[in-house]
């Protein structure tokens, strides 16, 4: 075993979204990290091709974040956020809303992307109830969407594996079709030309259910977890227009696209489409401390601030605006601003695009797609083997070869820290290409 831990020592931890038995027989451990790299317990260096899990946007081991968290913990380790407050929570809220487009000027703090999604869905339904539209309770998601693992998130999510055990317990939802279509769009650089009409699915669902039953539509502006699925040109604009036509709220789940991944602070700015709610997490604190945040437009916040004085929204978490997370968030935003990281993806995206498209000729590659500092490399599933067999082999071999990638089924996702150099982009893609040549 390539680690300091015995087989027995690995047993108690039921690992999330992991093939536990496979992993525990052949563990892949990461023990230390700095900059663009991880190190294994036995000292092997691994280039981080996916920013941890799409979250370490400023690279690893940022001393400013460590120092800010340590100082905060020594000053105020915890304070309740229910009917009490602490200065750093307000400071972070004020700083974050300045990054937001339009009047997305209020923020609700959570601890994860899943909590952000469930919070956003509750805000959307609550908003309609408060504004005289109590029948608007249906939530529309999209096939292949990933919105975390809460009951709200799996209900609007579109991945069968996440939903199948809970079928009768899911919320009142329906789903748009996804926008992945290799027949029309394989090997597109950037946004596909074909497919804006898929947004018309929302018209179909309005016809089926009636607009008076629909509270909100939630989509990832660019879907990450299902294997990097891009919106066709004009698709999100069309979705916005149909939402406006029928009084439906539009939620962008920016847990991945938030904080610079596409070369703008948020996907809403990249696509120039204004949603009513944005959910975030991950890059908010550079992955260093768990934290999520939900941004809402002024009219939504205002709708809750009516009626007699009292608690306006019966919702929140013990650790909403945890002081350590807020300190990590502030230090992270400081780094992003000082180093221009929220827009650095735009400078690197062409070099990244050229590099990843060089994999087009590698064995079994049936699509390469990219946007900002994200790429999806889809492999043909191995005939007669379970879906994901080739992807898993790629993951294991890449780790052995010193690069960390992410796979969903047979699609490889790359989303490196935004500090990556062009030489490191070449190194990442060259090594991945070498691995692909060894996979039958
Ligand atoms: N929403 C999106 C778009 C995500 O990509 C993720 C995680 O990858 C989540 C929600 C869930 O976030 P978390 O794992 O922090 O609950």
TrEMBL record:
Keywords from the UniProt entry: Aminotransferase, Pyridoxal phosphate, Transferase
GO molecular function, one term: transaminase activity
Cofactor: pyridoxal 5'-phosphate
Record's keyword annotation contains Transferase: yes
Gene3D superfamilies xrefs: Aspartate Aminotransferase, domain 1 (3.90.1150.10), Type I PLP-dependent aspartate aminotransferase-like (Major domain) (3.40.640.10)
Alphabetized Pfam families for the sequence: Aminotran_3
PANTHER family named among the record's database cross-references: ADENOSYLMETHIONINE-8-AMINO-7-OXONONANOATE AMINOTRANSFERASE, BETA-ALANINE--PYRUVATE AMINOTRANSFERASE
Record family assignment: Belongs to the class-III pyridoxal-phosphate-dependent aminotransferase family.
Protein name (Swiss-Prot/TrEMBL): Aspartate aminotransferase family protein
């Amino acid at each position: 075993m390539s680690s300091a831990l015995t087989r027995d020592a690995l047993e108690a931890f039921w690992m999330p979204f992991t093939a536990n038995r496979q992993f525990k027989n052949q563990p892949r451990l990461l023990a230390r990290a700095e900059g663009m790299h991880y190190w294994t317990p036995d000292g092997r260096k691994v280039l981080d091709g996916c920013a941890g899990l799409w979250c370490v946007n400023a690279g690893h081991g940022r001393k400013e974040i460590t120092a800010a968290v340590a100082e905060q913990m020594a000053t105020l380790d915890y304070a309740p956020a229910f009917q009490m407050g602490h200065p750093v929570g307000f400071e972070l809220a004020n700083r974050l809303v300045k990054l937001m487009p339009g009047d997305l000027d209020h923020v609700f703090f959570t601890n994860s992307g899943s909590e952000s999604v469930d919070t956003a869905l509750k805000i959307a339904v609550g908003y309609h109830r408060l504004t005289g539209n109590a029948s608007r309770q249906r939530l529309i998601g999209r096939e292949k969407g990933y919105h975390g693992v809460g009951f709200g998130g799996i209900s609007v999510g579109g991945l069968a594996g996440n939903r199948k055990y809970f079928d009768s317990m899911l919320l009142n939802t329906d789903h748009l079709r996804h926008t992945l279509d290799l027949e029309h769009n394989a090997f597109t650089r950037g946004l596909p030309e074909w497919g804006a009409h898929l947004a018309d699915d929302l018209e179909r669902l309005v016809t089926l259910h009636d607009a008076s039953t629909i509270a909100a539509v939630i989509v990832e502006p660019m879907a990450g977890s299902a294997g990097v699925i891009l919106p066709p040109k004009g698709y999100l604009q069309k979705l916005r227009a149909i939402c406006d036509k029928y009084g439906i709220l539009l939620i962008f789940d920016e847990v991945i696209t938030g904080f610079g991944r596409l070369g703008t602070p948020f996907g809403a700015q990249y696509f120039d489409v204004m949603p009513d709610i944005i959910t975030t997490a991950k890059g908010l604190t550079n992955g260093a401390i768990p934290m999520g945040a939900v941004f809402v437009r002024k009219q939504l916040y205002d709708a809750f601030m009516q009626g007699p004085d009292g608690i306006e929204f019966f919702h929140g978490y013990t650790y909403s605006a945890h002081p350590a997370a807020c300190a990590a968030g502030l230090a992270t935003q400081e780094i992003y601003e000082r180093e221009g990281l929220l827009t650095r993806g735009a400078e690197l995206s062409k070099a990244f695009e050229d590099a990843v498209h060089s994999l087009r000729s590698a064995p079994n590659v049936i699509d390469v797609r990219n946007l900002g500092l994200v790429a999806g490399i889809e492999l043909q599933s191995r005939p007669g083997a379970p879906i994901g067999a080739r992807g898993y082999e790629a993951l294991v071999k890449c780790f052995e070869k010193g690069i960390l990638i992410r796979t969903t089924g047979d699609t490889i996702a790359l989303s490196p820290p935004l500090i990556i150099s062009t030489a490191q982009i070449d190194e990442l893609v060259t090594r991945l290409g070498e691995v692909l040549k060894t996979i039958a």
